[in-house]
Amino acid sequence: MTERIAIIGGGKIGEALLAGLIQSGKPTKDLVVAEKMASRADEIAAEYGVLVTDVTTAVEGAEYVFLAIKPDAVDDVLREVARAEDSADNERVIVTLVAGLPIQRYENALQAGSPVIRVMPNTPMLVNEAMSAVAPGRYAGEEQLAAVVRLLEAVGKVVVVPEKHMDAVTAVSGSGPAYVFLMAEAMIDAGVALGLSRVQASELTVQTIRGAGLLLSESGLSPVDLRAAVTSPGGTTASAIREFEANGFRHGVYEATRACAATSAKAGHRPDVEGLGGQNSGRTDIDAP
Fold first, then answer.
1. Mean pLDDT of 63-70
2. What pLDDT was estimated at residue 59?
3. What is the pLDDT of residue 271?
4. Comparing C-alpha atoms, which of 4, 56, 3, 12 is closest to residue 32?
5. How far apart are CA 263 and CA 170, in angstroms?
6. Where do the domains of the chain lie?
7. Is residue 198 a contact partner of residue 192, using CB atoms and an 8 Å limit?
8. Model pLDDT for residues 100-115, shown as the tens digit of each residue
9. Phi, psi (5° rounding) for residue 265?
């Protein structure tokens, strides 16, 4: 059976997934996008050469259906998916990239026994460097889970976690890029305060963060080891680290992630929780604010 994939939502995250799948070698004939904004649908069709249509048509014959929509659109989309399932010969796997909504909500809305897999990605998906966590629902089989992991690897790295850990994932990786961006803002402003131009401070900061991330990812050393390697006793870095700790840097990170996880947990019970940029949006926010 052809592994046909439907992406519901043509926002930036949906487009990033589409582009990654094509780049990984997925034939365009096996990909379809549902997007109701005509101008956006035309853009995607022209750029990627895929069929862009309505939800019902998109999911017909699709083995995997990725939902990259806003939470307030989920119920309507699931109703359309459920109607299409009545005439389908294959079992569809619903893969939700929508923030905050539990798997049970999808399982309750779909035909009994429908496999659902929940994903918490982050915005580096836009440059094929996502960190995505996936949690299988009770009806998702091991082969289906493995297939979804493989598909998501087209846009970054993937880990499998139980759904109960999704709030923690949100706090660390889902919202994590914003923490790095905030750090970058502060470093740039500090550089300007020390006499650098904003252009110089920006270039120094961005490349430093990029290089540090690659070193952490590829060196095989722990953050503790890498920090120690650049921190000479009584030296300049040691002075900076001492000020960070004196001003509660580590405690602030603990409290920030704790607050993020708590908000994520509450968001799962709110029908209006914000999430991924959807069918009518260029939004790229992933977490629930």
1. 96
2. 94
3. 42
4. 4
5. 10
6. 5-165, 176-247
7. yes
8. 899 999 999 998 999 9
9. -65, -40
